[in-house]
Amino acid sequence: MPCDIERVERLQQAMREAGLDALACALPENVLLLTGYFPVIGTSIAIVTRSGEVTILAPRDEVELAQDCAHELVAFEPGSLECITGATAAVREPLQRVLQQKHLTGAVIGYECGASCEPVSYAAMHFYGSAIPELLGEASLRPAGELLAREKSVLTLIEIDRVRRACRIAEEAFDRGRQCLRAGLKETEAAAHFRAPLSTVGTGFEGVSRSDGMVCCMSGVNSAKAYGAYARSHARQIEIAEFVLTHCNSHADGYWTDITRTYCTAPPADRHLEIYEALFEARVAGLAAVRPGECAGDVDRAVRDVLSARGFGGEFKHPTGHGVGFAAIDHNALPRIHPQSTERLAPGMVFNIEPGIYIDGFGGARHCDVVAVTHRGVELLTPFQCRIEELIR
Length: 393
Fold this sequence. Notes:
Blueprint: H1 5-18, E1 22-25, H2 28-35, E2 45-49, E3 54-59, H3 63-66, E4 72-76, H4 87-101, E5 108-111, H5 131-135, E6 140-143, H6 145-153, H7 157-180, H8 187-200, E7 211-219, E8 243-252, E9 255-256, E10 259-264, H9 270-289, H10 296-309, E11 350-353, E12 356-359, E13 363-366, E14 369-373, E15 378-380
Parallel strand pairs: 1-5, 3-4, 5-6
Antiparallel strand pairs: 1-2, 2-3, 7-8, 8-9, 8-10, 11-14, 12-13, 14-15
């Protein structure tokens, strides 16, 4: 049986309101939403019916990982020594059999379509893409992208607990990485110290089956470029008395974090200290603005107003945050903590608050926390290294 009854009931209600008989998804983050299982290579398919039945079709070598996440688990062989085939051909017959058994052959089925931003679960990912409509045969198909996005924006109690678990693993990784950080290391070497514990500590942590993530370190003038959607560690050696911006996206069984801490490799000079103080004042303002019913744009404004008052308005070059949990880095994941956002915060929403200051030719600093909206206000899921003294190496 699926362990998250709250999620199944929410999906049932969403299907009733949308006039759907079932949902069928293959993107790993949507399979995770429907079942609690994060597919490894992207060939699994999840089906949830309006009556609450959950089915996973998974490649045979993923069955052990998926076995506790559905009422019915159907294994298939994506390939064999007898013939050369692919996942689409291999899943066709078992999928048709499931549709017939669930009386969904001519049903109204919601499916994922359009652009998506998918967190990576393996070295390579399979996407069915346009094959999904063909695989669903005679069903009447309805785009369900907006429905799925709304569902992913408000996490269940179990899902929030899994994000907490991922954040606790990341906390250990940041602690171990910080202890190794020093001038003379390459950015790539520093990033490796932060990344390794995500798997070595995380896998097996409180029952976690798979844990990993990406970490990049950007130091000195490189850290001034960290506002972009794409960031990377360079071969540059970290120098004394400069910022080292360390960004982490990690997951525990598919539930993601988005965390940044900025270190200084010596007691901060006046300019570094001014930036730190502005960031932490903006962080406090952002956290204080989070409450049920609050407009997401007002949370962004609370952060942006502080940085502007401190003289850094032009150096804060991105929105304050976006949905986290099912997404790693997806600036369209709800809720969008953006200057133009009119979305209202609700209990169960999980997102990041990431004030940043980026000065060309000098350096950049960002402090990114993961938070959850509660009925009372905000829960900080990343309550570590939140004082300037803890960031000085």
